[in-house]
Amino acid sequence: MPTVEFMGQNFTVDEDGFIDSFENWNEEWVQWVKKEEGIEELTDEHKKVIEVLQDYYRKNGIAPMVRVLSKVTGFKLKHIYELFPSGPGKGACKMAGLPKPTGCV
Amino acid sequence: MAFISSGYNPDKPMENRISDIGPRKYDEFYPPVIAKNKGKWLYHEIIKPGILVHVAESGDEVYTVRVGGARLMSTGLVMEICDIADKHCDGYVRWTTRNNVEFMVDSKDKVDPLIQDLEGRKFSGGSFKFPVGGTGAGVTNIVHTQGWIHCHTPATDASGPVKATMDVLFDDFQQMRLPAQLRVSLACCLNMCGAVHCSDIAILGYHRKPPMLDHEYLDKMCEIPLAIAACPTAAIRPAKVEFKGQKVKSVAVKNERCMFCGNCYTMCPAMPLADKEGDGIVIMVGGKVSNRISPPKFSKVVVAFLPNNAPRWPETTDCIKHIVEAYAKGANKYERVGDWAERIGWERFFEVCELEFTHHLIDDFRDPAYYTWRQTTQFKF
Q1: Confidence (pLDDT) at A105
Q2: Partners of residue A61 in chain B, C-beta under 8 Å
């Protein structure tokens, strides 16, 4: 798998730019994905979404369903798309260091 | 090739972004005769295989020439279709729900030159580019999937077996000698994308070995609860596994409960199960979607396994040809394959198609399996 170097850190990523392991996630990774996803500014709302995703993943071993994410964060899906233009899967989960979404996507 | 920008600015991805505009409206592409007579058609006729005429209240006629398409097409071929449409049909053409191509003209004298043009075109290998047919009680195009061209879960190929099967059934594409139309479909795994569960004859990719477990990556790449929940027979459970001296989270598969559906691989990339010798094809028959006479039916498994024998899949095409011939000989007019099999009884179906009945064909999936067994003494020897 290819590696990227960013702000003095090395990350191993797959061809879609998802990190190889949740354990290798750190703050620099967020900055890297921010650049990759073309997000202009990281707000507290971005951080809240990431926090909820990571919390849920640690507790349950899966990413939350979109409706759960909406309900817990209080952000409507439309707003999540405003925060992460690629959407909750390709954008937010990638930034939070969760595994790549699978199934018929 | 060097990069050529379309005008999209990657630094400002949301600037000038157009979204949610949907497809172009269908009536923008109506040929004039269709636009004029929409909703006012009186009757239609099949003049000969592949050629239809629709007559409107106004007396207008539209002649449709249906030609087979390979579905997987290059832009070069689509351009050629456009050239033909420009030459004969004022630039109008349409695709059917079974991926055939239909050229429409508004008068009878335009039909013969169009057919001659279409039938004269061949690939350098010799196959017809635009074979005319696919109407009435014959075999039309095969609805099929991605196969080894593009998908990551297939147990067989799609384009290859479809080409091999259509070559064998080509005469029936160009004539209408069968009791009713016969729909053939293919899906390369039992996700069953397309129409295999409801087709007269269905070709289905099938695995025969349980998934391999990549313990090193499983917890990193997969959401383990999803892999567990993906299993229809609950063969998967979470497990702590020792890998290179480390305890890692993973799963364990009970092989005797696994029926090789591959759902877990769909959810978890660390559980691949494709296998050269293990994978092959299942044949199903007797499905239909129309409500004509009998209600819609699911297709049923009649051949449990045929090997993947690329590039021509001779066992599969032989089997299908056999079923089609037995059906053509045995069924009454208007009877679909499923209607015929149910009328003569499945035991007789296996006899006339010379198919072997094996224990694999007896349903054993949960409570509903019971209803597929025979709870009567009515049976033919």
Answers
A1: 81
A2: 223-225
